[in-house]
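Key result, reporting period 2: structure in, sequence out.
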């Protein structure tokens, strides 16, 4: 039918419309036809359930886990962790080796691990303790607890170590390190008789008298179970004889000598129970210097905590002050991006205002002014525009010169903190002057500066701590820190007594006070003296005449249990 219709239409419809018309007709006829039946889809057969519990799944793991590290590789990582001061990883890697080691190697690992953590300076020790404490690994936290116990108060050391058994029962140090510490602590026998060798004649007699006074005050504040004997070490030719005499008379600990020349005289003697009061060649004895503090490390730590980046350092050119200033610059710039500018001035006949001007580029400001005045041909009002990019300025000089520098900050409109060195420590503790010109100046000093008790001077504080060290040297050899002291927290590091000072500042009234952010680090005044002085009747014993050649020993000024001694 369709064919007939199309044949008839061909006669009347132009040829060029035939194609379109054919397509339309086909569509029309298709639409009029019956609706096709949709084929029925066969339902897909679901596969039977498969038990996959027995199939071992493969997880993606790190490349290092694919091949276990050898012991050599782990030890290399331990060395790297120590160099980078990543103490958490350092502990974890050591413990990893310990788990598979034999008993002998386990002992070595524990000892090495503990010695590394324990025999560090104050700043590094605090860094170690902070890292380990904040670790999520409880086995790592256990080592922080051990450090905390050993560095705590000496009087509580035994109890602190015992408490670790309950607080950290799974720590690996329970196998070897802790038992050894407890055994060593139980076997400690305090010094029964202390000999003090000081030059009571000549140039150092006044210093020696102050040190002796400090030792005596510490003795009266102690349990007074120790016998003290004082010996005159003025004569270098007879010094070794005096030392041998003290040992023959029963001294099991020696404090002194004081002078470097005297220390050299005894440097060949190996006596681990001798505490020299100055620095000399390292030997088989302990050295405690009047200036044992590492000021530079403490300054750097403080400045980092305050977020400083750029500091200015001003110092005279004397040997000691310039050495400290130069060391501070080097230490500060060791950590990028810290920067430091060091400017010096002559110690003899200094021009202090010009010295400060040189540090803050006052000269460059004047040069720019002169150039501008020459270019314009006019007289211009001028005020020096100095550099203001310092976060802080450190001046290394004495208190008298610091009092001249500080008012210049207002003149130059310098709005930044000003720091000094420990030589700003007052010489007389009982009569500390009020210095308004030093308002705001901060520096490191002895705790006795704020809480002197009955001490009068720095040398008396030095004598006080000498006695404390003599009494507690065995605990210090185990790693303990003495914190109830007068010259700062004390620790033993490689035969040297290290001091950790405290921060103080002059307030608006020119009075000394603790720096607020570090006030907690200062011991409470009541804790500075371990025991209250006993009420006793002391018999005065004046020093023998200076020309008395028959005696090389000196009695204590006041001695309830201090036994005088006479030379043969």
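The corresponding designed sequence is given below.
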């Amino acid at each position: 039918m369709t064919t007939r219709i199309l044949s008839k239409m061909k006669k009347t419809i132009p040829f060029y419309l035939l194609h379109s018309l054919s397509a339309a007709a086909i569509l029309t006829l298709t639409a009029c036809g019956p609706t096709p039946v949709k084929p029925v889809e066969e339902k897909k057969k679901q596969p039977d359930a498969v038990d996959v519990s027995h199939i071992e799944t493969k997880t993606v793991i790190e490349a290092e886990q694919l091949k276990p590290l050898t012991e050599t590789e782990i030890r290399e990582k331990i060395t790297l962790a120590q160099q980078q001061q990543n103490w958490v990883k350092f502990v974890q890697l050591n413990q990893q080796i310990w788990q598979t080691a034999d008993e002998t190697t386990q002992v070595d690992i524990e000892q090495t691990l503990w010695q590394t953590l324990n025999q560090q300076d104050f700043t590094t020790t605090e860094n170690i303790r902070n890292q380990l404490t904040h670790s999520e690994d409880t086995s790592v936290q256990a080592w922080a607890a051990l450090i905390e116990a050993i560095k705590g108060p000496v009087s509580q050391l035994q109890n602190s170590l015992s408490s670790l058994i309950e607080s950290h029962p799974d720590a690996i140090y329970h196998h070897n390190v802790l038992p050894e510490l407890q055994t060593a602590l139980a076997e400690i026998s305090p010094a029964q008789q202390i000999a003090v060798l000081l030059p009571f004649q000549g140039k150092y007699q006044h210093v020696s008298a102050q040190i002796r006074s400090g030792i005596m005050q510490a003795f009266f504040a102690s349990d007074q179970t120790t016998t003290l004997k004082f010996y005159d070490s003025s004569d270098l030719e007879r010094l070794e004889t005096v030392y041998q005499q003290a040992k023959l008379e029963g001294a099991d600990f020696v404090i002194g000598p004081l002078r470097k020349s005297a220390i050299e005289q005894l440097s060949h003697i190996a006596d681990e129970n001798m505490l020299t009061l100055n620095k000399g060649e390292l030997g088989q004895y302990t050295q405690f210097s009047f200036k044992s503090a590492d000021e530079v490390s403490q300054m750097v730590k403080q400045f980092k905590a305050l977020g400083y980046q750029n500091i200015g350092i001003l110092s005279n050119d004397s040997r000691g002050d310039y050495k400290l200033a130069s060391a501070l610059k080097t230490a500060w710039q060791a950590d990028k991006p810290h920067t430091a500018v060091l400017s010096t001035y002559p110690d003899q006949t200094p021009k202090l205002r010009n010295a400060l001007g040189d540090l803050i580029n006052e000269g460059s400001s004047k040069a720019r002014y002169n150039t501008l005045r020459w270019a314009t041909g006019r007289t211009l009002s001028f005020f020096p525009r100095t550099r203001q990019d310092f976060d802080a300025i450190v001046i290394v000089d004495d208190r008298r010169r610091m009092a001249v520098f500080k008012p210049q900050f207002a003149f130059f409109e310098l709005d930044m903190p000003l720091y000094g060195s420990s030589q700003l420590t007052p010489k007389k503790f009982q009569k500390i002057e009020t210095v308004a010109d030093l308002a705001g100046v901060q520096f490191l000093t002895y705790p006795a500066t704020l809480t002197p008790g009955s001490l009068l001077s720095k040398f008396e504080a030095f004598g006080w701590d000498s006695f404390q060290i003599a009494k507690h040297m065995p605990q210090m050899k185990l790693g303990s820190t003495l914190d109830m002291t007068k010259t700062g927290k004390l620790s033993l590091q490689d035969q040297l007594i290290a001091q950790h000072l405290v921060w103080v500042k002059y307030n608006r009234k020119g009075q000394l006070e603790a720096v607020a952010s570090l006030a907690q680090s200062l011991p409470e005044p009541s804790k500075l003296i371990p025991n209250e002085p006993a009420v006793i009747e002391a018999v005065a014993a004046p020093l023998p005449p200076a020309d008395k050649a028959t005696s090389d020993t000196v009695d204590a000024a006041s001695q309830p249990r201090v036994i005088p001694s006479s030379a043969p």
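The mean pLDDT is 80. Residues 458-477 form the longest helix (20 residues). This case is discussed further under Risks and Mitigation.
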